[in-house]
Amino acid sequence: MIRVNNRDEVDWREGLTVSVLLDRLGYTYPHIVVTVDGQVVYEEEYDRRVIPDGANVRLIHLIAGG
Amino acid sequence: MAEKTLSPRRVLAELTYDAPSIKRGYAGQTLYVNLSDNTIAARPVTNLMKEKFIGGRGFDLYLLWHGVDDDTRWDDPENEIVISSGPCGGTTQYPGAGKSIAAAISPLTGVPIDSNAGGHFGPYLKFAGWDAIEVQGKAEQEVIVFVDAPAGRITIEEVPADAPTDTHVLGKWILEHYAESESDRQQMSFVSAGRGSEHSRMGCLNFSLYDRRRQDLRYKQAGRGGIGTVLRDKKVKALVVRTFPIAGNLNAPADLGLLQETGAEMHQEVHDYDPVQNRMRSRGTPYLVQIMDDYDLLPVHNFKFGTHPDTPKINGEVWEARLTQGLPDGCWYGCTVACAHAVDGYVVRSGPYKGQAVIVDGPEYETVAGVGSNCGIFEPDAILEINFYCDTYGIDTISFGTAMAFAMECYEAGILDEAKTGGLELTFGSADDAIEVLHQMARGDEFGRIFGMGIRGMQDYFVEHYGADAQFVRDIGMQAKGLEYSEYMTKESLAQQGGYGLTNKGPQHDEAWLIFMDMVNNELPTFEDKAEALHYFPMWRTWFGLCGFCKLPWNDVVHPKNKLSPEPQKIMHHVENYQKIYEGVTGTAVTLDDIITMSERVYNFQRVFNIRLGYGLRQHDAIPYRSAGPVTAEEYESRAERYDDQLREWLGLDPAQMSLEEKMAAHRQYRTERYQKLIDAVYARRGWSNDGVPTLEKLRQLGMDLPEVVAVVEKHL
Q1: Which CATH class is domain B285-322+341-484?
Q2: What is the per-residue pLDDT across B631-690, written as a single tens digit (0 to 9) for each?
Q3: Do B522 and A61 touch (CB under 8 A)?
Q4: CA-to-CA distance for B407 and B434, rounded, in angstroms?
Q5: How far does the CA of residue B517 sit from the closest CA of chain A (Å)?
Q6: A36 chain-B contacts, CB cut-off 8 A
Q7: Which of B492, B522, B559, B575 is best to mutate for the A interface (most A CBs within 10 A)?
Q8: Which CATH number fits domain B494-714: 1.10.599.10, 3.60.10.10, 3.40.30.10, 3.40.50.300?
């Protein structure tokens, strides 16, 4: 299990990457600040950055609207 | 210059003047026009105005306050339309620095409305020698107010009876009668409305710009609150300005080099990151349609739902294919974000202009969501048809879309029927009948006349004349303070409920847009967190309207270094850019705290203005329940799992043991109470009393304890 945005409990699987997590959550916005246990993950790392079990993940959408 | 022969024009009043030199973003005077007695006068910009009100929306509100009485209504001659850009308006070195801000007492709300637009009018007016124009009184016959800077002349002119009113034909008429040369077309801009503004309370203002590449006129809208209705009530066809040739130093900035350096960095950022972020340069604001749907936030069927399977038919990809590409679509010079797109050659399919090939400016996200998904209309051509007619008739697409969605739900609920609509079948998705209502509004007849009152007017009318359930129409009518909601779902974001409800002018998202911070990111878990956001962001965003800036370059393209910021939502590297631009123009360095204080002064002044006119208290910050929770069983059942989980998590209830009615009632009580708690927290953070009145201590702290302000506040503390 991992914790997303200090609220949502999300099932963890071996090899879970940032890309897979974003896809599972349906997070399609193109500009999200991703941190895994406090470390920033850049877009080019999304496909290979593996999230460990128990991780605290922040997915901060930089969208302040109209 | 080879002058062409122009038709004789009947001048009712004239003022000659020498346009002053602009100094650090200010002309130093404002223009007063009274249409009742045909007076025109120059008024000085005082130090108090510059120090406490800055410009733009601040100047608008200051001048409006001193023009009206405590009991002035929107259609009284004393009501004014004031338009100002602000000291940084007209900057060409940084994107999005040419906004005009208009204000008047609103026909929809009864309090001051402020609404901003692109286009050239505001900056041109300043470069013509005027920091603001203030139009009061009512003309006896149709008039044009013409500010002609090269001729050093301002006139009120009677307009021939055969002059058109609808903006896209009026524009061509103005160029034909007022432009003396091709260069004049580029140096002229005007503000107009249309026939729809004459018969509805949701009239918008169109701000023109001459598109050199298309060699045609384009329009941007100050849509909100019915200022177009006020313009037509005053019998004004147009406010026209002709200015001097445009150059990059017309603001006479204090430090042109600082503007150029800061602008160059930002232009590079737009170039590098817009194509992989929001794609404003190719899609404009409709990029947001699919994203809103993906996150269950797109208004569908009068805000009942947040998603629809047909959304891909009207999403950003569709509009990218429909919008003309490859043209520099900025609404002010030097804007590389260039989101002001258009569809060229659209062939109108209904109404008086059927068969004409026209330019449709937009559609913007708000239009696609408002007249599209919210009305169950997923046909791009129908959206373009409504967009075109709203603009040329002078009708706000947001109010039209939200009000039409309300009417459609009333129709489906049996409050309306074909007998009451004159044969129109206003079910969700009925595009042609929705378009017919627009034509009726322009003619001022049939159901369009009732519809044109806006949601608040329709609510009262349906209860009084059709026996509608008052509670039900209050719950589903998405208006607050009388203004129709803009197009975002707020049920699962308490902060955004406040972002709409705790505004001065009514539910428009330009004050605070906190849905993602609150609902998705969970960055605002406590009432205090939400209250802080509902202080900071409205004040930050207010500042754009004081200076003449557009909000979009602040946060619709972002450098990756922002990921490392401790507060990424504030986009601090862009805040620093704006500090530099302000200093570069005015010569005054400002901190972020200074910026917030500048906004607080005007924001609190506007709150007191509302109170002065009989509104602005806690009771007026109420919101319809549809914006806070599910009104109908259909809504609850569409998200039953979510709502049942919330009953367990929030209230410790077992939904398995409850009827649907009991579950909905429990939600309603909880959600209604927490909105009241939010109000408590926000009022405390803003320095207001429990009834929403700015305290004397707060006003003194801001230096806004002006005698006229204190006199209003003291009656309520």
Answers
A1: mainly alpha
A2: 999 999 999 999 999 999 999 999 999 999 999 999 999 999 999 999 999 999 999 999
A3: no
A4: 10
A5: 7
A6: none
A7: B522
A8: 1.10.599.10
CB pair distance less than 8 Å for A30 and B294: no
Q: Which of A31, A34, A35, A42 to mutate to test the interface with B (most CBs of B within 10 A)?
A: A31
Bond into B363 cis (ω within 30) = yes
Q: What phi, psi does B404 have (nearest 5°)? A: -65, -40
Sign of CA dihedral A15, A19, A23, A27: positive
> pLDDT of B436-445, one tens digit each?
999 999 999 9
Within an 8 Å CB–CB cutoff, is residue B492 touching chain A? no
CATH 1.10.569.10: which residues of chain B?
Answer: 285-322+341-484
ipTM of the complex: 0.95
Residue B31: how many CB atoms within 10 A of its CB? 26
| Domain A2-61 of CATH type 3.30.450.40 | no
- In three-state secondary structure terms, B138 is coil
Can you tell me the distance from the alpha carbon of B226 to that of B239, in angstroms, rounded to the nearest whole number? 17
Contact B563 A6 (CB under 8 A): no
Cβ pair A66:B278 closer than 8 A: no
What is residue A17's DSSP assignment? B
Which residue, B170, B209, B166, is CA-closest to B394? B166
Q: What are the extents of the domains in chain A?
A: 2-61
